[in-house]
Specification:
The chain is built from no helices and ten strands. It has about 120 residues and is mainly β. The relative contact order is 0.31.
Length: about 120
Amino acid sequence: QVQTVESGGGLVQPGGSLRISCTTSGFIFSDYWMYWLRQAPGKELEWVSWISQSGDETKYRESVKGRFVISRDNVKNTLYLQMNLLKPEDTALYYCVRDRRPRVRGGFDWTSRGQGTQVTVSS
């Protein structure tokens, strides 16, 4: 079955950096567009970034543009999010999910998420 395992979160000071990862199994990783989502306590789930199957197309929500970089390794079946210049408002539980369908960008499949990885930005 589809499995995603997020890792790499932690506590970091404002202005710091962190790289989170998502290892996947149970599906052909290179066939799917992938997404990072996040949810802060008491707030709605929000989309952070997506990346195409090959990695040649990426997009970011406005608030993280220029600070976050999404990437993927289709040999290791792993998704990454490099987060720089972190701000307290980046504090959230981060999830990776795949697209609903292979080989197209059709929207994320929330059921494919793992347990998430907590990122806390605080001094």
